[in-house]
Amino acid sequence: MNPIRTLAAFCLMALAAPALAQDKGTVSPKQLPPLSNPDDPALPAKELFGRSTEPASLRARSIGSYARGCVAGAAAVPIDGATWQVMRLSRNRNWGHPDLVQLLQRLAGRVPQLNGWPGLLVGDISQPRGGPMITGHASHQVGLDADVWLTPMPDRRLSRLEREELSATDMVRSDLLDVDPSVWTPQHTALVKAAAKEPAVARIFVNAAIKKALCREAGADRNWLSKVRPMFGHNYHFHIRIACPSGDGACDDQAPPPGGDGCGSELAAWFTPQMLHPKPGKPRPPLTMAQLPAECRQVLRAP
Ligand SMILES: [Zn+2]
What we know:
Helices cover 26% and strands 14% of the residues. By secondary structure, the protein is of the alpha+beta class. The site of zinc ion has 5 residues, from strand 8.
């Protein structure tokens, strides 16, 4: 089967889930009710991981693969830094492997010199113990994926309510064939390029229209473009994925992206009518604990 078509089916399932990055939250989120039978083997794992409000106090480890795993010893990106602010606090998804948390803070610190923005708006990373989520995202399970808004951090602290309700800006033109030149700027290119050049970064996901703009604007320095991969959605934010931390034996790395800048036929394949307006795929049954690495049970149970 055509790998891009397979990818399309896979991603649409992820997109079919509610609560994409653009969804608004509330400052007083409802607590999930306790589970009547948490040991039921048929119970979707997201129901368990979605109820963990604190990280597992174990050594930091990413366990499993980006779309099938969990994270122990996660750290949080503080909700406020000099050069970043975490959005949608009600989701409690500002948790990740400490390596990713450090990278995000370091990247955010470079932003004012890099492109003149005051800083970054940080979207979803992972739940406190990673794992599948009740809303949104097939990946983001092992604390190595982070969404960063393509909207600059404003020059002031946002209120809790603003962080739930503020909308990011859609960077893609309504015909989906290119970026919207009234909102896309060289500052965006500089930011994505800097993120892609971070040695720990394995992949960056952006909308195909954004990749097209990056290909056009990259000039002679093009090696970083191989890490920037087209993906459905990702028109309001970009997604930073780092590689498995070294020595993390239970973490499954993804094969490295193919070489080259990915700006030729591979990119063109994203602009066919089927790819621009894909038919929604059948929703896949939710993952159960038995489908996750066995160690994720310890991560759930740990204090
Ligand atoms: Zn993402």
